[in-house]
Structures are given as structure tokens and as C-alpha cells.
């Protein structure tokens, strides 16, 4: 067997690998499906955010604050904090939020605190919503804990 024989096979394999790479390339391969999945996830997150904000606004929740917590926790990408005027208002805001998210196709993973209604937490998988009485919100200070601007994040790292 000559030395030219094995080299030919290697060249053939490389050529076929290039053909495969062209066939799988950025226009029609795993990278495209990953990019499409990222676009779908971003569109889904934007739709969920709109549903949540509209539901809170419709129920006259106070001081609605949306926090981007990506990079701070793996539990969720977004945290929404809102206040109610009374325990009954907090409970009704949370119930209506759950109803509207379900109607929009977003199933809540869990709801905690509806019995006491000082603080109701709604876990919407990629978003966590806190509906609280103002005194409870002030006491726990979630905004101070989770609202880290890029300069604060850089200083902390």
C-alpha cells in the first residue's frame, strides 16, 4: 500500500465534512434552531410580562416594579413587585393575575400566601410576581435586595 492511499481517504473525509458543515450551516442547522428557540423564548417572556402588567394595572395594584434578575438567580429571569391597599385587595389582585395568566396560556407553577394575604407570591416559571401590603413590602425591601443596576453588579463582582 502506498502512502498516497491513506492521504486520499483523509482528504475525502475532510471534503465530506465540509459538505456536511455546509448542509448544517447557520441557515439550516442546530444554530438556526437555537436562534429560533431564543426568539420564541424572548417573545414568550414579553407576552407574559405584558399579561402580568396589564392584569396588575386592571386590578389597580400600586407601585408596580419590574426587575431583571438574570445573572442574580437561576430561579427566574424577571421579578415583579406590586402592592395592594388591603389584604382583600392583595388576594383579589393575585387571584385575577392567576386567572389572566392561565387564560393567556401561562400556567402558574405555584401560588403561596393566599390565606394570609399580606404577601402573595405567584411563580410563573420564568417570572415571579410578589403582591404585598405596603408595610410588608417596606419591611422586606425586595427592591433593594434584587434591583442591582449594571454598575452595582460590576462593583459587586
What layout of secondary structure does this protein have?
Blueprint: H1 4-24, H2 30-58, E1 62-68, E2 78-83, H3 87-103, E3 110-112, E4 119-123, E5 127-132, H4 134-140, H5 142-146, H6 150-156
Parallel strand pairs: 2-5
Antiparallel strand pairs: 1-2, 3-4, 4-5
- The outline comes out as globular
Helices and strands, in order, run as HHEEHEEEHHH
The CATH first-level class of the domain at 49-156 comes to Alpha Beta
Q: Whole-Å distance between the termini?
A: 61 Å
Q: How many runs of DSSP E, i.e. beta strands?
A: 5
Question: Can you tell me the residue ranges where pLDDT is under 50 for at least 5 consecutive residues?
Answer: 5-26
CATH-wise, what's the superfamily of the domain at 49-156?
Beta Polymerase, domain 2
Oligomer: single chain
Structural class: alpha+beta
The helix content is 40-55%
Main-sheet strand order equals: 1-2-5-4-3
Approximately what portion of the residues adopt beta-strand conformation?
A: 15-25%
Indicate the CATH topology of the domain at 49-156.
Beta Polymerase, domain 2
Biggest sheet layout = 5 strands, mixed
CA gyration radius, whole angstroms: 25 Å
